[in-house]
Amino acid sequence: MFQTAPISAASQSEVTEQMAERLKTALTTHLQQVYAPDQRKSLRGFSATETAELLGVSGQFLRKGHSEGTLPEPAVNKGGRRSYSGDEIWAMRQSLEAGSRTKGKYLPGRREDDKLQVIQLMNFKGGSAKSTATIHLCHYLALNGYRVLAIDLDPQGSLTGFCGLQTELEFDGPTIYDALRYEAPLPLSDVIVDTYFPGLDLAPARLILSEFETETAVNAGRGAAFFERLSDALAPVEGDYDVVIIDSPPALGFLTLTGLFAATSVLVPMTPSMLDLASTQQFIEMTSAYLGVIEDTGVRMDHDFFSFLITRDDPSDIPSQQIVSLMRALFQDRIIPSTALRSTAIADASMLKMSIYEVARSDMTRSTYDRARTSMDAVGADIANLVQKAWGR
Ligand SMILES: Nc1ncnc2c1ncn2[C@@H]1O[C@H](COP(=O)(O)OP(=O)(O)OP(=O)(O)O)[C@@H](O)[C@H]1O
Ligand SMILES: [Mg+2]
């Protein structure tokens, strides 16, 4: 049972300590209800229709493939419907790609000489849907055959939670902090964990990551520049991935700048409201100043794209649509063409630390699910196009 008596304590630090304690108990209880204690998060099965769509083949092609034994025989659920696991979809991509005449049709990732794409999502405005956009992008790309590494650069660890690691409960392994810290850093490969989502690995975060801000201030001027720490850490594992997606904290501190330096592209998620517009303006102005400081050290940063992503978009809300139009007029192709629609399906899924891709269509009102999924797919496809463009395709 939760404590509900009024909090009274001698000092403000004790008051806040008790507040933190209560919240922790409530969170732990919530998480234990969502995930049975010994149960790890797992990915749902995908219907034959959805699998065919993901692979870009017809249902008939799939049926033929498994009757001829060239594709795996999927499980059949209680209703007699075929269902493919994420691993099976991944394995099918590999075998289809091996037999395909069009290179990259089923595995659209890097080819020889293509450089690793590192996309950072950043905006110092809290709640601009950075983490939600990040996890949807990671899941979209992984489902579409890219090898993805998610890096959680936010001490709040939202992305880590979305990836099924509960820092509040059982997870106590190394985190990205251990790869970035100044004293005896670990190789990034010791920090990366694979997730239950095929194609997606994670460098997790927890609260201690905020120490990087203080340690960087203390270490200023000693040894390699702080902003090189993430890109240096990434170098040894870069061959394992096609795309790296970085979620950042709602601040323009050393962590965000470290990500920005490692990034080959930047997405600025933004909710179309007047307050967010003003805040985003300040954010871009500050970013420009910091980039200038980094460039003054003689380093050049070339981002393949630096674009805005409109999030929590509500086409029926006229004032917000005026802001969307203004942004499009000001920045044209620096606005991702598709927007992430505001959707109760996405909000509901995120309560369970899930993306829309983890929810089965049959678990929600179909039209609500379809609208959210179509919107997230469109955003994912736009960004995948930019990635392909960066590779010259
Ligand atoms: N497309 C959407 N439709 C509905 N709700 C959304 C959508 N995208 C995000 N949200 C909700 O908005 C809130 C903020 O999202 P999120 O945590 O992703 O923002 P953030 O920018 O990462 O926040 P922070 O700055 O704290 O890191 C969450 O409650 C999330 O569920
Ligand atoms: Mg976040």
TrEMBL record:
Q: Which Pfam families match?
A: AAA_31
Keywords from UniProt, A to Z, are:
Plasmid
Q: Name the SUPFAM superfamilies on file.
A: P-loop containing nucleoside triphosphate hydrolases
Q: Where is the AAA domain?
A: 117-287
Q: Which CDD domains match?
A: ParAB_family
Domain of life, per UniProt, equals Bacteria
Q: What is this protein called?
A: Chromosome partitioning protein ParA
Q: Which organism is it from?
A: Octadecabacter temperatus
Classification lineage: Bacteria, Pseudomonadati, Pseudomonadota, Alphaproteobacteria, Rhodobacterales
Report which gene this protein is encoded by.
parA_2
